[in-house]
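Hi W., the S-adenosylmethionine complex you wanted:
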Amino acid sequence: MPEEVSNARGTAAACPGTLYVVATPIGNLGDITLRALDVLRSADVIAAEDTRVTSRLLNRHGISGRLIAVHEHNERRAAETVTGLLAGGKSVALVSDAGTPGISDPGTLVVAAARAAGHSVVPLPGANAAVAALSASGFDTARFLFCGFLPARAAERRRMLAELATERVLLVFYEAPHRIVDCVADLCAAFGGTREILIARELTKLHETLHRCRLDVAGEWLQGDDHRRRGEFVLVVEGAPEAPREASVDVEGVLNILLGELPLKQAVALAVRLTGGNRNDIYALALKLKQDG
Ligand code: SAM
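Structure:
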């Protein structure tokens, strides 16, 4: 059962010396939680990947916060700034441009630094493109591997896909529009055409599209309409099928044939070599067959 935690005003206001990791929408601005708004409203500082992007979100909700920038080029320095603020008793809300901070986005260094310094780190769950795609995929999502973005260079991407080819669990990738066609072609080459893929495009937005098909026809589908190659993409690909079991060897059948032609000891030795079975077990079986026969 969810437990309700709120202060006297019925809100979840930010506490001193605490870092909040706040998920924000991945498209539809309605996809922000009430708790996220409470924390953004009450935090002393909002550490944002791009302060302009976050300002637009805050303006929409009538929130005026003190913003500092935490992006991939300054994250180490920003992590020091944030831990300094936390040490001084300030509350800090960490956000990225879209979705959950730290998931293919800046944020992990800030969180690691805050934790290492012994500060409370509180996650505020919400939008995440990978989970949104998985939830509507119709695949068995019991186990999946989130791979984020594949390398941009074709040779590295193919090497990584070759490593992933035998993974049995669902595979989840993020991809940019200018690489989507090449990426899907490489997925098909590495994994074979019979596995299914979900192409989840522009989730929660006006042109949201979820298309599921076999890998060998996915490229054709993308080429079928220019719009299908535009926007942001999550790709969910079925894992490798179970390897076919080796046919079980009929040890008794093999022994019966050999015993009809050879003395017992020789029949047993040959049966062990042919079936790979245990010598003592095969010897015992041979004795029984001789007695019965
Ligand atoms: N932190 C984000 C999250 O929690 O999902 C991911 C940020 S990452 C920099 C951006 C990538 O996520 C995009 O290139 C795309 O692959 C995926 N993505 C983000 N929003 C999406 C959306 N609305 N529809 C499909 N994919 C999306």
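The two ends are 67 Å apart (CA to CA).

W.
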